[in-house]
């Protein structure tokens, strides 16, 4: 006897696992395994260089001189950045820096104020 659940659509007992889902071969119904749907809803936690959790609207300080790509400008150590916005991707902070303009920063190069 199989320990897999029966199909909720047609009641078939011939279900099988496919990745994170169960699949019914008789009616082609797919449904997530228990607990899998909760894991997909977890949001990414953004942390600064010291491990503090960052949120939208925080103020941060740059901890390393950062060269601006395609320009001769440099964002100096200690530059304060206000009202950050967190986004998905490699550079996970969107912000505006006085004297430079709109920038994307990595959270590993900033610390929370």
TrEMBL record:
Residues of the Protein YjdM C-terminal domain: 47-112
Pfam families with a match to the protein in the record: YjdM, Zn_Ribbon_YjdM
Gene3D superfamilies: 2.20.25.10, SH3 Domains
Residues in Protein YjdM N-terminal domain copies: 3-32
SUPFAM superfamilies: Prokaryotic SH3-related domain, Zinc beta-ribbon
Transmembrane segments: none
PANTHER family named among the record's database cross-references: PROTEIN YJDM, PROTEIN YJDM-RELATED
Family statement: Belongs to the YjdM family.
Protein name listed in UniProt: Alkylphosphonate utilization protein
The organism of origin for this protein: Thauera humireducens
């Amino acid at each position: 006897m199989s320990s897999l659940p029966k199909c909720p659509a047609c009641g078939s007992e011939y279900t099988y696992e496919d990745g994170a889902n169960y699949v019914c071969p008789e009616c082609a119904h797919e449904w997530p395994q228990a607990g899998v749907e909760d894991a997909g809803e977890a949001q990414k936690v953004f942390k600064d260089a010291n491990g503090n959790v960052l949120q939208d609207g925080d103020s941060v300080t740059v901890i390393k001189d950062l060269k601006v790509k395609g320009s001769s400008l440099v964002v100096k150590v200690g530059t304060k950045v206000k009202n950050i916005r967190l986004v998905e991707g490699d550079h996970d902070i969107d912000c505006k820096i006085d004297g430079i303009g709109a920038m994307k920063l990595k959270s590993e190069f900033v610390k929370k104020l």
